Amino acid sequence: MKELDLLKKDWQKIDNSFVQVSETEIYKMIHKKSSSIVKWIFIISILEFIVLNSLSYLMPNEKISDSTIVELVISILDYFSYGVALFFMYLFYRNYRSISVTSNTKKLMECILNTRKTVRYYIIFNILLVFVMSIVVFFNEFQIEYANNNGAKMIFICLLMLFFIALIIGVVWLFYQLIYGILLKKLNRNYVELKKIDL
Amino acid sequence: MSDNLEHSFVKQLRENQNIIHKICRLYTNDDDAHKDLFQEITIQLWKAFPKFRGDSKFSTWAYRVALNTAITLYRKTKRSINTVEFEGRQHFLNDVEYDYEEEEQLKLMYQAVYQLNDIEKALIFMYLEDKDYHEISETLGISEVNARVKMNRIKGKLKKILNPLGI
Asked: What NCBIfam families is this protein classified in (chain B) (predicted)?
């Protein structure tokens, strides 16, 4: 391609056209803060871990049920969730550490996406956990109310609460998609493009 | 980090800064964006510098970090298609025999390259820098054969942009 050869010839000479940055300017630059997506992903992910973990402290800590079995199930789930949180934080740390700007482009992109995925799975796990806990509590309450002939009222309350939980999860999810949509749009697009080359 | 390390980095970066300028020229469309990307690449290079052992040339190492920053880590995206970029460099073309037709062709070629996507630009960049397909494939993490195939497709795409009717 004739034009490409022309461009290549010109490209070799292009060096003279750049305004050279001085050593003093470089010194200044390296003390400035990075605005890379990895930094943002790290900050947002840490916030997500903190928020999700502190949610359980905000919940009323009173006895949920008189039934010892329900209490037992709830506390097992509670301890289980702490273990899982620690596990996810370890995975997150490991994935985050594997992000290296000196890897090849594809590997770098995969490491960033994997770090994100860890946090996403943690969030999905938490949503499922809340769901399971709610079912246990509702089922227990339902049994008690049913015995007191308040079954219809109880079903109505359950449905109402389910609706609100779904609404809150929906809003949070949308917000979440928006943040990561903006942050990872370019990366995702380039990753797809890079993967297509090797298909 | 020690002053020595900092000094050695700053010196090497100053000497090799045109690599970064070239990448900034491909991936940005105005001076502000150019400076911004230059700064981000410099920060990323500095952060990775303690692990740079000198078993490859500083420039080779810098290529990879700079490209990765432009394609993956840098968040801001381009605002408009570049058309003014070419103006600034005409002065040195005046030194040699001035060829208007060649000049016009070059201008169109630069504009065509700006229309490529980020990955295609990376391939073109390394091609212009005379990198072989082995290095291109290692840098991007794709196979050598496919890098070759992709490069041929990009040439085809550029041809199409330059001459959409295929006359």
From this structure: sigma70-ECF
Contact check, Cβ <8 Å, A101/B44: yes
Indicate the domain borders of chain A. Answer: 34-197
pLDDT top residue among B95 and B137? B137
Give the B window 28-67 contacts with A, CB below 8 Å: 38-40, 42-44, 46-48, 51, 61, 64-65, 67
Residues 121-160 of B with CB under 8 A from A: 122, 127-130, 138-143, 146-147, 149-150, 155, 158-159
Contact assignment for A36 to B74 by CB distance below 8 Å: yes
The ranges assigned to domains in chain B are 3-73, 93-162
What DSSP string runs through B38-68? Answer: HHHHHHHHHHHGGG--SSS-HHHHHHHHHHH
Closest to B89 in 3D by CA, of B25, B33, B38: B25
Confidence of residue B23 (pLDDT cuts 50, 70, 90): very high
> What pLDDT sits at residue B77?
57
pLDDT band at A65 (very low <50, low <70, confident <90, very high): low
Query: In CATH terms, is domain B93-162 a member of 1.10.10.10?
Result: yes
Please check whether residue A111 is in contact with residue A98, taking contact to mean a CB–CB distance below 8 angstroms.
yes
Instruction: For CA atoms B15, B21, B23, B24, give the dihedral sign.
Output: positive
Can you state the percent helix, strand and coil of chain B, rounding each to 5? 75, 0, 25
Question: Domain B3-73 adopts which CATH fold?
Answer: Rna Polymerase Sigma Factor; Chain: A (1.10.1740)
Contact in structure between B142 and A194 (CB atoms under 8 Å): yes
Chain B contact for A54 (CB, 8 A cutoff): no
